[in-house]
Design a protein that fits this description.
elongated, three-stranded parallel beta sheet, 80 residues, 19% strand, alpha/beta
Length: 80
């Protein structure tokens, strides 16, 4: 997107402000990456919010490039 081909990460419902901004600029297809919260309590949509997220994304200018999360137990040593 733009001069540097940046693709934003969408991690909360505040993203709708970004959609409105780009629509005003005439940009109708915005490549984005969706972050899901899976237990590290960092950024990301809660799993329970995914149905609402899908509904909102269907009415946006965003083109989903990927869906990702942080590892839920990255600080725990592997057991084997």
């Amino acid at each position: 997107m733009g001069q540097y081909s940046l693709e934003p990460v969408i991690y909360s419902f505040v993203y709708s402000i970004v959609d409105i901004f780009f629509k005003k600029k005439g940009i109708r297809e915005i490549p984005v990456h969706i972050e899901i919260e899976t237990g590290m309590n960092r950024l990301g949509f809660a799993v329970k919010d995914i149905p609402a997220l899908i509904g909102k994304l269907n009415n946006s200018s965003f083109i989903i490039q990927s869906v990702f999360s942080h590892l839920a137990a990255s600080e725990e040593p592997a057991t084997g």
